[in-house]
Design goal:
By secondary structure, the protein is an alpha+beta fold. The protein has one domain. Helix content is 36%, strand content 25%. It has five helices and six strands; from the N terminus they run E-E-H-E-E-H-H-E-E-H-H. Strands 1, 2, 3, 4, 5 and 6 form a six-stranded antiparallel β-sheet that branches. Strand 5 (92-97) and strand 6 form a beta hairpin. Helix 3 packs across helix 5. The radius of gyration is 16 Å and the shape is globular.
Length: 148
């Protein structure tokens, strides 16, 4: 199968993590660069966060700080694997990185590790509450009123 421009379609596996701890693997097929699919899933413009440079990316809505509630799961995952230690907001999509720096597929092992991190945190309500509070403090410091 190929796209209109003759580019071969490829499939990547991603992990979508919502603010409530719902994590789901999804397979996306495209002959493009997947940015349109990311925009659709995140409902707007997107930006990537290098979680592990050259290996793991997290995609978020470009204005999620101002539009979305805190996501304690992505906040914890990024800090745990050596990414930026800061609050993250809204739905996030984790992808791999291809050799050319484009969106790449997550390996089963990486996806399982991310899912395990989400599950681990869901069983620790005190940690979840602390991470949500951190996100709220960051919002207050920036004068943001969060929609529930």
């Amino acid at each position: 199968m190929s796209g209109q421009d003759g580019t071969a379609a490829r499939t990547v596996m991603v992990l979508v993590v919502d603010i409530d701890g719902m994590a789901r693997r999804d397979s996306w097929t495209s002959s493009g660069d997947f940015v349109d699919r990311l925009r659709g899933e995140l409902k707007g413009t997107v930006t990537s966060v290098d979680v592990i440079e050259g290996a793991l990316e997290m995609w978020v809505h470009d204005e999620s700080l101002y539009l979305c509630p805190p996501n304690p799961f992505t906040t914890a995952i990024c800090a745990d694997v050596g990414g930026k230690r800061q609050p993250y907001y809204g739905r996030a999509i984790f992808t791999g990185v291809s050799g050319g720096g484009e969106v790449g597929s997550l390996s089963d092992e990486v996806a399982a590790g991310l899912e395990a991190s989400v599950k681990y945190l869901t069983m620790r309500p005190a940690a979840l509450a602390a991470l949500r509070a951190l996100g709220q403090l960051f919002h207050e410091a920036h004068g943001v009123t969060t929609r529930a």
